[in-house]
């Protein structure tokens, strides 16, 4: 076997592989013999069929399989041994006729290969990059405390209705003269939130109502063009709801109002665990501490984004073997067409350039990703998911269990590894470059350009 690798343009190459019969003959012979031992052909005892018959039946396919396996193995061995940074998979050389493997050897196979551009990415103290230190102001702390109090609140019975209160009562369909319709739609203990009605005129009918009051309203007018809401209220199908035009009576049995939780020990324990906080001042301090952790994470991810922009600007336009790369992209997205490739190629190349640059930075900073790093990221993601529901004192064993479940899903593992690499790179780069630290409010930070 002979392999040549022509790479005059550095970013693309032509690999030519010439296969002689001697390169694959032994493998073909071995495979045919193995097949013969297992073959059960009428007229012959198992394993005793003539080898010539076996060759006529499967010889051609065995030969093709052996050549393809050999070429694939030798191609990747060559790439690895010569440290060629190949992008994607080798593509059949354009303009070449398919090789006729039925003809006698030798066979010459040619492949177009995209090669990664040689980037020069290195950062040091001469590189100055902005690092935003986001401050948790009193407004943010108040908003977070209000969110905790809202999540910990509950509905309480009140004497009369105000906006956003919840009503419970009995619904009855009425005739045109206002009497209750016999065999009409009735719903016991129907729950309503008039504040969510779409028409102010219908909404106003409920203002100041009390338990025992009977309100006459029109559900269809209250929820115009909303058959789903109407069907949910009246406990009928969406199709039936579309035909409802009648007025309904609503006899109110209960008015409840959502009341936020008081800033007391019960709330402190709910949020941070029993005994972790004993007064409002300590609660505010603990909330501020939690916000700082979130804001520090925002600072770090923004820092990495700014590092990326800095590196991209420094690299300028990076050349790729566009024709080969587009063929690879189309092959990798077999359910898409050429338009998809053309529309998404530029953004795909942008991501690839950053991936290559980031790998160099990871190598420069000697960042190694360990299993523990990946698991920690999984636990942090779990903590963030619980925090969205106001649950901040999740036991460590629960976090471990959830993280282990995430690590069982292959589609999530690659994402977790990438995030772990980003996290460790962020930490390392803060010691490598010069940080241009700037204090900023969260409101100002959220307005920064992406």
Describe the structure.
The chain is α+β, with helices and mostly antiparallel strands and 450 residues long. The protein folds into three domains: 2-115, Alpha-Beta Plaits, CATH 3.30.70; 128-145 and 278-446, Trigger factor, domain 2, CATH 1.10.3120; 154-259, Chitinase A, domain 3 (Roll). The chain is 50% helix and 18% strand. It has 15 helices and eleven strands. It has helices at residues 21-38, 51-81, 138-151, 200-204, 219-222, 227-234, 238-241, 265-272, 280-315, 322-332, 338-364, 371-387, 396-407, 410-432, 442-446, and strands spanning 2-6, 12-19, 86-92, 107-115, 128-135, 154-157, 166-173, 186-192, 214-217, 248-259, 434-441. Strands 6, 7, 8, 9 and 10 form a five-stranded antiparallel β-sheet that branches. Strands 1-2-4-3 form a four-stranded antiparallel β-sheet, with helices on both faces. It has a two-stranded parallel sheet with strand order 5-11. Helix 1 packs across helix 2 (51-81). The relative contact order is 0.12. The mean pLDDT is 91.
């Amino acid at each position: 076997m002979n392999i040549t690798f022509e790479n005059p343009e550095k970013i693309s190459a032509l690999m030519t592989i010439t296969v002689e019969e001697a390169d694959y003959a032994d493998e073909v012979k071995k495979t045919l013999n193995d097949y013969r031992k297992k073959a059960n052909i009428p007229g012959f005892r198992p394993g005793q069929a003539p080898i010539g018959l076996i060759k006529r039946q499967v010889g051609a396919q065995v030969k093709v399989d052996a050549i393809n396996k050999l070429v694939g193995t030798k191609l990747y061995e060559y790439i690895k041994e010569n440290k060629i940074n190949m992008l994607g998979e080798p593509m059949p050389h354009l303009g070449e006729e398919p090789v006729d493997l039925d003809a006698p050897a030798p066979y010459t196979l040619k492949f177009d290969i995209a090669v990664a551009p040689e980037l020069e990415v290195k950062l040091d103290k001469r590189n100055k990059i902005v690092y935003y230190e986001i401050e948790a102001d009193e407004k943010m702390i108040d908003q977070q405390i209000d969110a905790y109090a809202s999540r910990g609140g509950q509905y309480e019975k009140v004497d009369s209705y105000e906006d956003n209160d919840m009503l419970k009562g009995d619904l009855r369909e009425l005739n045109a003269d206002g009497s209750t319709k016999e065999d009409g739609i009735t719903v016991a203990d129907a729950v309503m939130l008039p504040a969510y009605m779409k028409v102010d005129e219908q909404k106003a009918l409920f203002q100041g109502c009390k338990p025992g009051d009977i309100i006459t309203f029109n559900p269809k007018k209250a929820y115009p063009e909303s058959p789903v809401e109407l069907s949910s209220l009246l406990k009928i199908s969406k199709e039936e709801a579309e035909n409802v035009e009648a007025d309904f009576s609503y006899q109110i049995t209960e008015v409840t109002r959502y009341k936020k939780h008081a800033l007391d020990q019960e709330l402190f324990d709910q949020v941070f665990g029993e005994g972790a906080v004993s007064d409002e001042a300590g609660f505010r301090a603990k909330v501020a501490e939690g916000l700082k952790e979130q804001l520090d994470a925002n600072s770090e991810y923004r820092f990495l984004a700014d590092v990326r922009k800095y590196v991209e600007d420094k690299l300028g336009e990076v050349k790729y073997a566009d024709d080969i790369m587009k063929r690879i992209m189309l092959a990798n997205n077999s359910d898409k067409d050429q338009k998809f490739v053309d529309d998404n190629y530029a953004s795909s190349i942008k991501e690839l350039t950053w991936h290559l640059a980031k790998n160099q930075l990871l190598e420069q900073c000697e960042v190694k990703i360990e299993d523990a790093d990946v698991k920690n990221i999984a636990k942090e993601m779990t903590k963030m998911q619980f925090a969205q529901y106001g649950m901040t004192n999740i036991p460590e064993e629960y976090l471990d269990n959830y993280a282990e479940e995430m690590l069982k899903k292959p589609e999530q593992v690659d994402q977790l590894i990438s995030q772990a690499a980003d996290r460790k790179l962020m930490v390392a780069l803060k010691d490598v470059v010069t940080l241009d630290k700037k204090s900023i409010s969260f409101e100002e930070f959220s307005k920064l350009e992406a």
